[in-house]
Amino acid sequence: MTMILITRMRERLARSREDSDDMTVLFELMFLGELVLKIMVAGMLAATEDDRDRHRYRLEYGLVRASGLGEWCDALDDLLTGPSAATLTSDSFPDRVELTKNFDLKAADSWQAVALNEMLEACRIIDPSYWMDHPTRVGLRIWARHFTWLRNKTRGHGATTIKTSAQIVATLELSINAVIDNFKMFQREWAYLHRNLSGKYRIVPISEKVESLEHLKRANDITYEDGIYVLFGSSPRLVPLVFSDVELSDFFLCNGGYNQVKFEALSYVNDTRKYLDAQRYVTPPTQLPVSETEGLGSLEIHGGMFGNLPPRKQDYVDRPQLEASLEAVLMNDRHAVVTLVGRGGTGKTSLAVEVLHRMANADLEKPRFLAILWFSARDVDLTERGPKVVRPRVVSIADIADQFVGLIEPAEASKKGFKKVEYLADQLGKREGEPVLFVFDNFETVRDPQAIYEWLDTYVRSPNKILITTRLRDFKGDYPVEVGGMRREEFDKLVSATAVQLGVSHLLNDSHRAQLFDQSDGHPYVAKLLLGDIASRRKWTDLSQIIAGKDDLLQALFERTYNQLSPLARRIFLTLCGWRSAVPRLAIEATLLRAADEPIDPGKAVDQLILSSMVDPSRSDDGDEFLAVPLAAALFGRKKLLVSPLASAIEADLQFLHMFGAARGSDVVRGIRPRLARMFKAVAEKIQDGLGDDALDSYRPVLEHIARRYAPAWMMLSSLYEEQQTGEGDRLAIESVRHYLEEAPEDLAAWGRLADLCRKVSDYVGEAQALVSRSIQPGASFDLASRAAWRISSLHTSRLLAAMPEDEFGVLVETLLDRLDAEQIQATATDYSRMAWLAVTIHDRSRAGDYVSRGAERDRDNPHIRRLQSWLSPS
């Protein structure tokens, strides 16, 4: 299988042969070789696991700053035989063997020997003494060094003649082709993955076949960021430092040129350059400090329990309701897995530490747990000076098992063949003995949160328990405890304590405290940083400007959560960030459906945003749900929106949202109905402005979606259809009213409107049915039923119900008469006359006579009764 980007380079080489000299062909071969070398290194980088020592990051950090191919060779050696080799996935073992296994260059019975011998021959054309005294049994990895030397001696720093170039071309091409056609990495499945709004993936092949990735076209519960992937085993792995787009219009490889803000990426096919954001490569790759909340390295006695809990925070502010909720669920024997979930900086860790210390020191006859074991995956500490990158203690099940064994120190650990992961699984599932509480802090930063959660959930058994603190909640079977912003009284205590500590109490008044609460959304960490900034300025300052200027804060709080969102959830989030007021949930869902060209589930995406605390839901008095983005998250989102490829699509979404109007706090209380009325009016105005049927047709799917979710909108839609003054419009108006009545059959006015619309289109059977249905609803007056009897009698007399089968008509009339009979006490002589005429329509003269007799008792002189008496009397 030949990769598309290599095929394109070979095509460029072929074109150069048609009308160029050997020197040009040599240089084209050098470009091909550079491409092959960089793909080789990038592919092996993709095969590494993220690790606590950041080996992969260290190599990428160096390559974006590389000034030549030598650094790429160093990276390859590090990946194959250096510190990074321990992080390679086992599925990359064949690739590693092909590069590191020693081959006899003299035997030339392997493709590796061919590639190396041809490369050495090319090098010796430049320098006949090159590499003469070195061993003959070597690994292919040295090929990269030889190619780099040759490249530097020719294209890089040499003055190669046409004659020399002609000699080098043939042997160099044989060497490069041997690598391309045989190296395992280039035979793997490569593809560009693009996640559609539906959550499913578009698989764009880069290699000839990508069958192993086909399942992603049907999956919508797996998260991969858009990019180039190579398959190792069953797992696609993102290839770093190689870039393209979903159309594979071109391929760009990292080419150094780092300047604090961006780095250069080069297209070897078209000799074009693009500059990419270097923000992720700013932090030096040195050994990071441990987190402030990592936990102790050994077990100690905490009150009546053993544990390695980190110390309590000295400035912790009590949150009584949350503390009581968390302690209650930890103390019971149900819910084996508990998640403490909320956005970054809301105090999940400090809350957990406080509650666990209290539990450990509680005066109980028998503690709930024998031990509390703390495992930290935290990679960023939110300090008072801002976010600081730290070294996570655990990122994988193997790390967890290693720390667990280190804390417990079981005797069998010294025995040969002891397996830490199996031991951890066994201890999690033990039902006998004293229970243990396992705490996993910052769970979203482990290598594969969903997989590790499923592993833990599989093995844990009561009375053991697991507590997870996380920003994300994609788990099934857990018991969530939501941690949001502080309550106002809790927040005021935090502000007062922090202000005293910073010496800025005199700068705060009640208005400032209210602003702090509103602008931070009760977020404790944001409030602390705002107060710290005010302390440094020694004066009160506009809070939104302070937050907007803290890029590191916004990234620390929201970047990881944002990256985990589905494409549809990201689009909704960015749309909400571009709209500066609360938005009805129904409106944002309808907006996305309007623009979708494939089946999507915006409701699921909104739920993901709510669960990840990226948006805050609220409800009106009528129960309608509104969505708003907290200030800090909104500022983060607006920065993302500026550079998002979705910016134009989101602008179109915002224009549609304008039709609903902005919703402030008081508007939310009033509910969604005024918003929808405004939107339907705006659509009507667009139609009146000359857009005609096309406008209605384009909005119809969205309007119907809204109506399916909010039944009163069917009545608004009915009016919109009727305004078109066409037969089709009237038909759709009737259909809309019927949809509404399916949800609200007790609405008498809607039944009346249905009857009127049916009469308008001469559907008299439909009119009669609507009148009877209205009459039998709870709350329908006797007078409504009486008038229905009169109208149906008139329709029958005029033979306008002739199309209705006689048995169906009989059932309809009997239903209405039963309704009238039930409240005869209210009937006047005229009402009885109507009931009698109705009985006549079904040929029940006896019943009609009875009604006439009763009507005469009410009013013997009633003209309708007297007429009926004359008509019913024997002639």
Q: What's the Cα radius of gyration?
A: 38 Å
Number of helices: 35
Helix content: 40-55%
Q: What sort of overall outline do the alpha carbons produce when their principal axes are compared? A: globular
Biggest sheet statistics: 7 strands, mixed
Residue ranges: pLDDT <50 for 5 or more in a row? Answer: none
Summed over residues and divided by their number, the pLDDT gives a mean of 88
- Summing up helix and strand content along with how strands pair, one would put the structural category as alpha+beta
Q: What's the β-strand tally? A: 22
Strand order of the largest sheet: 11-12-14-17-18-13-19
Q: How much of the polypeptide forms β-strand, as a percent range?
A: 5-15%
Notable traits:
875 residues; alpha+beta; seven-stranded mixed beta sheet; four-stranded antiparallel beta sheet; 35 helices; 10% strand; globular
What does this 3D model show about the protein?
- The chain is of the alpha+beta class and 875 residues long.
- It has a 7-stranded mixed beta sheet, sandwiched between helices.
- A hairpin with a 2-residue loop joins strand 11 (300-302) and strand 12.
- Helix 1 runs antiparallel to helix 2 (22-46), helix 31 (782-797) packs antiparallel against helix 32 (806-821) and helix 33 (829-841) packs antiparallel against helix 34 (845-858).
- The mean pLDDT is 88.
